[in-house]
Design brief:
The chain has 130 residues and is mostly helical. It is built from 5 helices and 2 strands; from the N terminus they run αααααββ.
Length: 130
């Protein structure tokens, strides 16, 4: 081939196992439910795909290539209905408190949590808690 030719050149490396369309399907599933596991994505893809089956490593590569978080999303703690009502009741009770009224309360922002090695919050093992 000459330089400036419009013909496709041979590409180095192994051809991709998954098409761009199938890759976008995986990306959509991850965006729709970020809590889904790689194993679940793999089984869903292999069940509905007419092409070759893929391994979890391929799914991880797709997620990383599309700049999505390559980790499990942390779940938000949901409050029960009665807890929300109690919080609202507490707020309405103390809504009109003055500075002098609040001076009788002691607040502490110390928390028994610490950052673990996997970057998640966990309870600190302190001697006071035992």
């Amino acid at each position: 081939m000459k330089n400036g030719s419009l013909l496709s050149k041979n590409k180095a490396g192994r051809p991709q196992k998954i098409s761009k369309r199938a890759e976008s399907l995986v990306v959509r599933k991850v965006k729709k439910d970020p809590f889904t596991s790689v194993k679940k994505l793999q089984t869903d893809y292999n069940a509905f795909s007419t092409g070759p089956s893929v391994c979890t490593k391929t799914i991880r590569r797709i997620v990383k290539r599309n700049q999505l978080a390559d980790r499990t999303a942390s779940q938000k703690i949901l409050l029960r209905q009665n807890t929300r009502l109690e919080q609202k009741r507490w707020c309405t009770n103390y809504l009109n408190f003055s500075r002098e009224d609040w001076s009788g309360f002691a607040f502490s922002d110390e928390c028994p949590f610490k950052l673990r090695s996997d970057r998640r919050l966990g309870l600190a093992a302190s001697r006071e808690m035992k």
